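Dear U.,

For the methods section draft, I wanted the exact inputs and outputs in one place so we can describe them consistently. I've listed the two proteins in the order they'll appear in the manuscript figures. Please don't edit the token lines directly; just add comments below if something needs changing.

First protein:
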Amino acid sequence: MSTFTMDTATSRATPTPVPGKRMTVPAIRSRKVAKVDGYTTAEPIVMLTAYTMRMAQLLDPHCDLLLVGDSLGQVIYGLPSTVPVTLDMMCNHGAAVVRGSWHALVAVDMPFGSYEGSLEQAFASAARVMKDSGCAAVKLEGGEAMAPTIEFLSKRGIPVIGHVGLTPQAVNQLGGYGARGKNPAEAERILADARAVADAGAFCMVIEGVMEELADDITAAVAVPTIGIGASARCDGQVLVTEDMLGLFERTPRFVKRYDDIASRVTAAAGMYASEVRARSFPTDEQTYRPKG
């Protein structure tokens, strides 16, 4: 594992520099061990999304993996889906998250259109993401069709996280965000996708939006850790979009547990600030500068 010390000279949050050991790809891969009563005997992998330096600072002590997801298209930019997200967006937000973290392994999503065209395109895009952001891995969606790409990248020193089941970049083809694997034929295809991704060299994989039994079957069938989102508690780890988990949006997907109601807190704080500004009760002597003596 490598060590990393945060430079706080220009940080608005001025965190305390902490020499730390980054999680590594082998450390994540090693979380796949024998199971007892259906559950892994290793500590489950904790993964959350992060798109900014400050959020990375807050999440990093608690996470094994920080994912700079292309969900930033909707969460940060208000786009209708992940499809319009660009490579520039991913590189810039990835670099911010790397700067704000020192413990978690940072992975960055490959955006739609940046890797599907050819093996060479995929390598060029992934290499740029890693160089520009400093991340340790990339994540790409797709099953058997993407297996050659995963193998090509992995053999050239680019660690890859797979993503099977509900794949948001293919939402137009899938016809929506409904759970996958409801019928036996589709479940078998997704299981085959997962096996292909693992065999191609992905060091772990996200299983999104599938029936619980299918997620269990995949977790038992592949030799790499599985990280569930809308999948099963018996996956080797879990991931959520942080803003969903914190309650920053009114709509909560079925698979999300809201651990707070940050939206209400922000609304209340902004309302209090607005009232004090309009009443001229802010700023007070404590927030203004006056001559001493």
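Second protein (the one for the lower panel):
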Amino acid sequence: MTTPQGSAATSPLPGILGALAAFALFSVHDVAIKMLGGYAVFQIVFFSVLLTFPLVVMMLLRDDVEGNLRPRHPWWTALRTASTVVTGMCVFYAFTTLPLAQVYAIIFAMPLIITVLSIPVLGERVGPHRWGAVVCGLLGVLVVLRPGGGVELGWGHAAALTGACASALASVIVRKIGREERTAVLLLYPMVANVAAMGVVLPFVYRPMPLGDLGLWAVMAACAFGASLLMIEAYRRADAVLVAPMQYSQILWAALYGWLFFDETVDGGTALGAAIIIASGLYIVFREGRGNSPTRPVRRTRSRPETGTAPRIGPMLSDADRDRSRH
């Protein structure tokens, strides 16, 4: 693991603390989604994108790289965009129907799915150690879901799993084409696609929004944007192997917010399954940190499911930042 900016005296602590703060904001964002659960998911996603879009455009105005918005890899870009739209719908729906801790536990399976998808998409070679971690992590998912046991499976669980898979696919595709596509293409296409797709359905599901609910949408936009900025700085100040695991702090926020706002408790099965999934994900992250893989897809996912409703962190890092996170 290299030291950020090439200086041995640079401490990674600011980066770690920044990542923890970012995921705390992301958790507030997810609480707002759950509070808006009385609306159709199409309406929640539509107005989330609509309020975040101007902030993203302001960031892109600072991009002085000449070019257009025509993707260099149109088919991969289309598949990634579709995967992102599916992720947004599924993850938002899961948050409105399931306890927060259950959603996070299932989404935490993303590094395991990314490891598997990196084989056909990136040509990765996954050794027995990482395969063992994948199998253990998937067993952890089964512990959380407990099919035929104490959890009554529903559409929310299917949506969370689908969202994790779709987000993993989007992340792996970015690993494949991210260096050749413009930041504007990577950021704008999923957001525009979300507005278009949700906008088609919106007239059929729209409900009038009181001022208080509009405030929740504004909180979502502010939290997503602020958390993205914090994550960018975190990856600039600390190595990815230290920053990426901070996503698992969200399970603590889920337990706290679920108890405070929704009268939720974390049952033993969810806690045990989440622990297994987190341990497997951490093993893969640290294994990639020691290995010789040229892509290291899990370490470079930037840890947050890409829903197309907020800025994606990876494209906004400079080439130097991305190079550093690979070593």
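Candidate sentences for the figure legend, describing the second protein: Confidence is low (pLDDT under 50) at residues 1-9, 319-327. The chain has one domain: 10-324.

Thanks,
Y.
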